[in-house]
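Working notes for the structural subgroup meeting. M.R. asked for a predicted model of this chain before we commit to crystallization trials. I am recording the input and output together here so anyone reviewing the notebook later can reproduce the run.

Input as submitted:
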Amino acid sequence: MPVQLPEDKRLAVCLSPDFDAQSVWIGTFRSRSQTNLSRGEFGAEVGAPRLLEVFRTFGITTTWCVPTHTMKTFPHAVEAVRGDGHEIGAHGVFHEYIPSLELDEERRLLELQVALHDSLLGQRPRGYRSPALDITDHTLDLLAEFGFDWDSSLMGRDFEPYRPRVVTGIDLEEGNTFGPPSSVLEMPVSWILDDFPELESFKGSALMQSNETVLRRWIDSFDFAYERCPGGVMTWTLHPQTIGRAHNILMLERFLDHVTKHADVWFPTLSEVYDTWTDGPDPE
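Returned structure, recorded in token form:
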């Protein structure tokens, strides 16, 4: 496997919060409801400090993907993340829905967020996660153009990074065709290992899963990877306004109690995973 974990580690677990705050409601959901905005405020003022406390308790360093809107609206909350030594990755300007953008606008917003990371944080982001985990045919090329090392938006693997390929042609009878592997390394994600679709409530939506169901699914996923995919990498997507609710924080702590019983689990940032990568042969 191209990832070279430390010699005493069997599996990498990356807990990677998306610190959307109010931007997810404005950008992706296109809502300016004061109630929805207050949910984002909860994420910044209550959820993020709770999550940071959990990470301190377990001695975990993580990668937070942060829209620049959050950096400007809640600078003290983002500074607290940096103060605890966590990595900050790019996550859009205002949690814009990427597939709706024309190429020029997608490039402009990517250029803007890189500049804002540089001016607000003093460094460029090494990695990117698309708001809403969706990209265009051009996103990977734009990330390479702006010098990104990694992306974490796609789902073509479960427990290993890979070089993603854009589907360049869809043919229902002859099969699809791919472009060349990207120079950007993919840190794959999954809706199954994402708290927002599983645990967020929308006026009591029946779609919200029970904590017992989600916890069992997360533990089963971890156990499979640990037992059957040595040298693998798992990425969880967490949202402070979701996982930061009292009952969800308790679930996260129970999950981490299970994971940390395994002394050979590594908790790196996504850029630390990237730094262990060695390219293997291209896919056929």
